[in-house]
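Following the same procedure, backbone shapes were mapped to integers, yielding the entry below.
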Amino acid sequence: MILKSIKRYWQVRTGRLETPVDGAGPFWIVSAAFHVLLIALLARFIMDSNEDKAIVLEARVPLEEVIEEQEDVSLELTFDEMEMGDLGADGGQGELVTEVAAPTVDVVAVDTLNLEENVSEVGDLFSREDFMHTAANAFAPLHVKGSVGTGTSSATGAVDRLTQEILFSLEERATTVVWVFDQSASLIQQRAEIVQRFDRIYRELGMIDEQGHSAFENKGDSPLLTQVVAFGADFSVLGEPTADVGSVKSSIERIETDSSGIENVMAAVAKTVALRKADRDIDRSTREPKRNVKIIIVTDEAGDDVQQVGKAIQVCNQVQIPIYVIGVPAPFGRPETQVKWVDPNPEYDQTPQWAIVSQGPESIAGERLHLDFGESFRDLDMIDSGFGPFHLTRLCYETGGIYFAVHPNRTDPGREVRRWRTSDYSSHLTYFFDSDVMRRYKPDYVSNKRYWQDLQKFPNRLALVEAANYTTTGDLRSPRIRFENFNEADFVRDVTRAQRNAALIEPPLNRLYEMLRAGESARDKEESLRWQAGYDLAMGRSIAAKLRAETYNGMLALVKTQKKFSPPVGDEPQNNTWLLTPADATETGSQHRKLLSKAKIYLERVVDKHPGTPWAMLAERELAVPIGWEWTEAYTEPPRPREMQPNNNNNQPDLPMPRENEMPKQVRKPPRL
């Protein structure tokens, strides 16, 4: 019927009886044309148009649950070295503070989230053109990582770099900067230093504004606002955001010292974010956040509520606020340092005092042995780790900010800093290391849960952390190496007692070696420079300590039964003291030769593969001290018999009298820092 209708239509339209579909034409052509037309019509009704198509977002897990594990998917932002010019280039002492150039983005190793579970439809988003902006705010875990290992010798150097960061932010949109100051007494000097720098910051930004820089175009009447808050045990807001530099400086100067010694830094971060969260609301006219917000923390401690770092990271990433910290370097593998305290009030005694302050460690768990066998290795010295306290640095890293490790003695990396040269209100760190070198050795900035999960996958890492923790228990003590022989009975008693103590030392050292050897098979598969250096140093040092302990006991047996003092020469007195000193050879035999070779292989590998790092420096110290022992002779003045002193009729001894009208200044103990 359809074919007849087509023929009839053709005849009416053309007035001709013959048609193209008469018996002379192939019928398959007509059939094909018909089916193509039919398929096109069906497709038109079945397939929806692309026009006005809504985008549906499906979330597998709630955003709040994803954020805590945000390190799973991330990008890392680094900077290539480049001269900075006048703006922000000088750290207050003529040094180039840090490198600033076009950023390069590196993908950090990821563990893909399981998105096949807990599927639930959230709803429709606005439209296709809004998708990119909304996704940027919704997927906070997909963010750019911050910068760590940035060292400077002054707070002004860090502030100059932050001037650049503020300028970058202003190029995007209007910006609010919140300065969050630690209220501890040890930060008085640094706060004053920053206040003095504020004029320069705003003067430079003002000059850029006058020159018509793009950062200030179309940013309204208040492109840059500044607010000051303070924290200790509590949290204080010192005024509303303002463009008045004088008001900002006045707020900083009236910060009161908190004598509690408590620093709830993570709580301060959460409260500051809540304070400025409205600035990150989406402006419906521009469909972008109203303002950028940058939070700058100034502190000289690790903080007392670091267990809340996960929540602090979460609230920051939910609204995309980066955290910057002007802080202190963490001591390498140690939780505490000694800070030099000089009373800021000249009416009191100005003699330096030393206070214990929590400024570390740079990693979640200890990754450095506490081992100072024979007191020859200065293992208790505090040295720079190249990074800040772990949790504060992780906060910067995870939110896209920067941690500035500020120490005034960081002027010549590799040069020893004597105790007396330590600057006031600063920790005593004997050595500093080049930031460019140390960035390749950054700790694993992940959550506690993720850190311990990863340790189970790497036996060498787990062995190192367990061994480092084991050496903090106090079981490993330094042996006695000096024995006076004033009379034979006392001498034999002292040597026997030392042998007994040596017998107590050997089992813990053997246990330490076995703990590290459990991870030895996985060492060659390790790709992280930090974990390579850490494990090799620990392994080499544990073997060396084991050998020293075992040969030490043998040497004690020799001196008690076989060693005799040499005859005196000329008028010199007869030697009466035996000293046990490190030596390349030992008199106890060659059974330890294989272990000795193994220790040197590990230690020399650290020196060769990781130059300019704390691990290499400690390995060099270990190699510089021979692993064997030898006895040397010396003379010690025998103690004189006690003489009866006249009581002088119970009168007090003559003491120098103080000058008339002169009173010694009162000494105040350092406050809780």
Remarks:
- Residues 49-142 have pLDDT under 50 and may be disordered.
- The chain has three domains: 2-46, 147-366+389-435, 458-634.
- The chain has 17 helices and 19 strands.
